[in-house]
Amino acid sequence: MVHKETAPMVEDNAPKDRVNALKCASCRYDLSGLETQSKCPECGFSIVRSQELADELILPGDELPRIRLAMALLLSSTLTGIPGIMLYCLFAVFLGLSQAWAIPDEALWSFQGLLFVASWSPVLTLAVLPRRVHVDGGVRIMVGWALGCVVGIGLINTPFQTLFLAGSALAVVCGIINLTRANRSIGSVVPAWGRLGAARQTRGPLVAAVLVIAVCRMILEYTPSYRMDDPIPVWIQLMVAATEILLFVGCIYLLINRLWLIFSLWRASALRTRERH
User: Fold this and answer.
1) Concatenated DSSP letters of 126-138
2) Cα–Cα dist 159/143, whole Å
């Protein structure tokens, strides 16, 4: 019987790499002295990723102004997209009251203009960002969604109320998708973006609310006049009204959040300018 000799276990006593003069890219915690393969003890963000982001901001000297410009562009486009969603809620209420053509022309054109800017300005935002931080598909997919918004705007101007509902929902959804894609691209290069509350917003709840409103309004559009004791249309009406209220209130919160972010960026920029002088 042959006995195989096993190699003795050797402890890895090799010195581990330690961080030297680095702060966490997410929470600005001092990471000096920690192992490079570990995570920030404060927020759990990868130390390796913090080092990569620090190198990216130091080596290409022309990229930091571009990232700041992209952040400003995204916030500005969000300030047009959110009022567009709020107008969508109000127009859906008008349609539910069978007063579609009572909508003032000025409000209708403002609605279309806001959605157009909200869907196309994120394309410019992504074009400004360094190419390596683009989300999958880059600018081409966002151009496709922006063209979808143009199609929706075209349907809004048709004389059919059902196409008005479908077109307005399509335009709003395309704007939301482009805004969130640009938002995710900025969040990938500026981790603190999420801590400010900007990158936490996902498109799922917003898109779902818009589609629920559109589908329910279309169902009610083709439902004959009903009595108050007819439960199904009444419940649909209550559901769509509740969804419109929730979406409207959520948009108010997002609008306040974005205004606060713009103030924070302006204040930080003013402080940096003051420190230089």
Assistant:
1) HHHS-GGGPPTTH
2) 27
Structure letter (DSSP) for residue 103: S
Please count the helices (runs of H) and the strands (runs of E) in the chain: 8, 0
pTM exceeding the 0.85 threshold for the entire prediction: no
67-103 confidence digits (pLDDT tens): 777 777 777 788 888 888 888 887 776 655 545 556 6
Of 275, 265, 79, 58, whose CA–CA distance to 175 is shortest?
79
- The number of C-alpha atoms within 13 Å of 21 and in the hemisphere containing its C-beta is 1
Under 8 Å between Cβ of 45 and 39: yes
Q: Cα separation of 108 and 122, whole Å?
A: 22
**pLDDT tens, position by position, 208-231:** 888 888 888 777 777 665 555 566
Let me know: does 139 contact 181? Beta carbons within 8 Å. Answer: no
**What would the DSSP string read from start to end of 146-199?**
HHHHHHHHHHHTSS-HHHHHHHHHHHHHHHHHHHHHHHHHHHHH-THHHHTTST
Count CB atoms within 10 A of the CB of residue 27. Answer: 16
Residue 93 and residue 216 in contact, taking contact as beta carbons nearer than 8 Å? no
Interatomic CA distance for residues 240 and 210, integer angstroms? 10
10 Å CB burial of residue 129 (0-12, 13-18, 19+) is: buried
